Amino acid sequence: xxxxxxxxxxxxxxxxxxxxxxxxxxxxxxxxxxxxxxxxxxxxxxxxxxxxxxxxxxxxxxxxxxxxxxxxxxxxxxxxxxxxxxxxxxxxxxxxxxxxxxxxxxxxxxxxxx
Amino acid sequence: xxxxxxxxxxxxxxxxxxxxxxxxxxxxxxxxxxxxxxxxxxxxxxxxxxxxxxxxxxxxxxxxxxxxxxxxxxxxxxxxxxxxxxxxxxxxxxxxxxxxxxxxxxxxxxxxxxx
Lengths: 114, 115
Known about the structure:
The structure holds two protein chains of two kinds.
Chain A: E1 3-7, E2 10-14, E3 19-26, E4 32-38, E5 44-50, E6 56-58, E7 64-68, E8 73-78, E9 87-94, E10 103-104, E11 108-113
Chain B: E1 5-7, E2 10-13, E3 19-24, E4 31-37, E5 44-50, E6 53-57, E7 65-68, E8 75-79, E9 88-95, E10 105-106, E11 110-114
Parallel strand pairs in B: 2-11
Antiparallel strand pairs in B: 1-3, 3-8, 4-5, 4-9, 5-6, 7-8, 9-10, 9-11
């Protein structure tokens, strides 16, 4: 069975600082991995996805994530935080790409301090 | 492309009542998914369809829950005899089973409060 663990339910960074949101996965098959962002009272929006091509994946809004098989990790980073990045971030895994149900982590709430 | 829409956005009901939610996927998306999100948790898969066929149901989906997609377009999720534990955000997502177009697009959700 697949699972995702997001370390830290709440992360707070200063504006302009590095953003690092951690995600570790468990999967018995080569995984497909996703990061979604959720703003208040809105649905989830895809930031980026890993589908066994390049291990460093670039997404929208300056975010990127690196797939590390040896560490079973897919951490999300952004070099410089912006106030508009404040939101809830979810890591998800599936064994069939986006065409099968996703298994989500519990989420990490990112706060950005001016 | 208007995105995934869900109706209603908010529903308050009393315990024991039945409720029905509707999801309209992005036009021509053949897969449709339902998830449930409780406070402080990530979305949890409930069920999904390809066209009108229901492909899988989670064990989270008790007998009080039923979903259908009669014409392969919109879908409804019905909860019978609601319980306070059913209070959650119900999310719908859709995608197109074709090549690399596998990104699931999510609607804004229906927030259910059971009193």
